[in-house]
Amino acid sequence: MPKSVAKPKMRLFACSFLFALGAVLAACSQDNAPAEITAGEMSERTAQLLESARAEGSVTIYSSLPVPIMTPLAAAFREKYGIETNIWRGGSEEILQRSVAEMRAGRHMVDVVETASPEVEAIAREQLIQIVDSPVFDELMEGSVSDGRAWINSRLIVFVGAYNTLNVRPADAPKTFEDLLDPKWNGMLTVEANDFSWLKGMVSALGEDEATNLLRRIVEANGVGVRDGHGLITNMLASGEVAFTFTEYYEQAANARDQGAPIGITFLDPVIAVPTGIAMFQNAPHPNAAMLFIEFFLTDGQDILADYDYIGTNLSRQSLPEGMNPVVVDMSDYLDEYQKWRALHREIFAAQRR
Q1: What is the CA radius of gyration of the chain?
Q2: Domain ranges of the chain
Q3: For the stretch 137-152, what's the b/e string if a residue is b when 16 or more beta carbons lie within 10 angstroms of its beta carbon?
């Protein structure tokens, strides 16, 4: 949760919706909305959108995806549509702060944002993004589109168990959270320091009493080290300094494993997943190119994400690893409950912090 931006209350969007068949956008200002698309087949609709997008010439995107992933994704978009992309990569909190600062300064230079759901929701509450519509949304996981919400679930951050295979044999890897109560895990467990959304997901999946009691029992039985940052934990897993963590990002563990690191992955039930969001800015200077990029990200872009072990939200493109059945957290009220989840996480794991 960013510290420099106050948590605003939800505001109502004073938007009028374009309900014409095949319309791409429902926006507060038609001056910054994609050209209305007439009824027709998907290919015809895309062709008309592309014509308007090419007239705009480029699209600017703020994203928290790592550069090695965003670069080929943007290149594929340029190759397919002949539209230039301008990418600014930052952490989710940096994207929120920059977006709000530019809005307050009256600068409207960016078209699309794709980042963690708490920050994109905070951007929405500042009335900086607009509601869009697309036939592509019908292909997404349930809950990816929500009435009145301006952002769309674009990919999943999936929390998994990960272990150093030199310290833990794959046959001995835990299969459930209850397995972590076994004394053999004493001194071997690690959790990331700020995974408050994961805790919200555990409570949503198991109920608050069951989830918190289970985690407290694990801490009491075997101790749980606390480390700050998933990148740090991945490196420590690879080196053997961390034997096992139960809140590792799947894509980080899988990518390190694929590059030869001695890392194994196990899916502890429940497998918690938190969505990221993609959205168009309210005063996007290139709204048609923005809409085209959003649709690309949610279709062809999902295949590129999968090449780097990311889990997308388009069901027609999604291929989950065997055993991964993610429980996707509803993040609509996370900002309002942030202090609760932060305090509860710290209370359960604080004594273990290093």
Answers
A1: 21
A2: 30-155+275-323, 157-273+330-352
A3: bebbbeebbeeebbbb
Task: Give kind and range of the element (H or E) at residue 227.
Answer: strand 225-227
**How far is Cα 199 from Cα 205, in angstroms, rounded to an integer?**
10
Q: What is the dihedral of CA 291, 294, 300, 304, to 10 degrees?
A: 150
Residue type, 133: D
Structure tokens at 193: 């320091």
46 has pLDDT over 90? no
Which residues, 6 or more positions from 181, have their beta carbon under 8 angstroms from its beta carbon?
Answer: 217, 218, 221, 222
Which run of H or E residues covers position 119?
Answer: helix 117-125
> Contact 177/246 with Cβ under 8 angstroms?
yes
Task: Return the CATH architecture of domain 157-273+330-352.
Answer: 3-Layer(aba) Sandwich (3.40)
Pairing of strands 112-116, 311-312: unpaired
Cβ proximity of 311 and 87 under 8 Å = no
Distance CA 151, CA 278 (A): 6
For residue 135, with 0-12 CB atoms within 10 Å meaning exposed, 13-18 middle and 19 or more buried, which class applies?
middle
Q: Do domains 30-155+275-323 and 157-273+330-352 have the same CATH topology?
A: yes
Instruction: Give the helix/strand (H/E) hosting 287.
Output: helix 287-297
Longest dimension (CA), the chain: 65
C-alpha–C-alpha distance, residues 183 and 126, integer Å: 49
The pTM score is 0.85
The model's confidence at residue 74, banded by pLDDT at 50, 70 and 90, is very high
The answer to whether 286 and 59 are in contact (CB under 8 A) is: yes
Class of domain 30-155+275-323: alpha beta
**Mean pLDDT, rounded, for 320-330:** 94
What's the pLDDT score for residue 33? 57
C-alpha–C-alpha distance, residues 131 and 28, integer Å: 9
